[in-house]
Amino acid sequence: MLKSYITKVITGVTLTAILGGFYFTLNYHTTAHAHENHEPHKNEAISASVWDNSTVSYNGSKKMIVYRSPSCGCCGGWIAHMKKHGFEITDIKTDNLEAIKQKYNLPQDLASCHTAIINGYVMEGHIPADDIKRFLMEKPNMKGLAVPAMPIGTPGMESGNIKQPFSVLAFSKQEETKVFNHYEKY
Does residue 9 lie within any of the structural domains? Predict the structure, then answer.
């Protein structure tokens, strides 16, 4: 079971790298041709993304334990995002991440590259800080939040301008899930 999980994660990261490289190459050549044709450069204001803005004011405990693989690079990007929003992170690198997920009864179909624990809740994957703050304020009768897999465009998973839509799912102890928030453009 652990081998299957690790194989899925490695396959996902490899595919992301390949697609990101393809997109970068395509985007680079498209941009290069635009400059060769002397097309005017558009200086459009770019609004800050969900990862930059902080719209939820939360005054409770922000102490979070994050479990991640020592070889996972994308987790560091998400941890930096959380720190930027005032969370105090205890970063625990482990080669036995599957055991952590089992300990906290994380449904396998919600798994991602890192598992965080805050105020007794499980936070799985690349969840925006404001969603975690809102969830903690609401204190729902749920086990936690999850962003399954590793959506391209989230912190640590950046690939040019690609922003893969994703949902933040709330899940219960009975493994029932519901959409807590959804992102198309961010």
Answer: no
Between strands 114-118 and 63-68, the pairing is antiparallel
Q: How many Cβ atoms sit within 10 Å of the Cβ of residue 140?
A: 16
Question: Structural domain of residue 106, as residue ranges?
Answer: 48-183
Which pTM was predicted?
Answer: 0.73
Residue 20 neighbours by CB distance under 10 Å: 16
Could you tell me the mean pLDDT of each successive run of 10 residues in the chain, 186 residues long?
A: 44 40 32 32 42 86 96 91 96 96 95 96 97 96 96 92 96 94 92
Q: Which residue has the tokens 């299957």?
A: 4
6 part of a folded domain: no
**The pair of three-digit structure tokens given for residue 68, joined into one six-digit string:** 């991640």
- How many structural domains does the chain have? 1
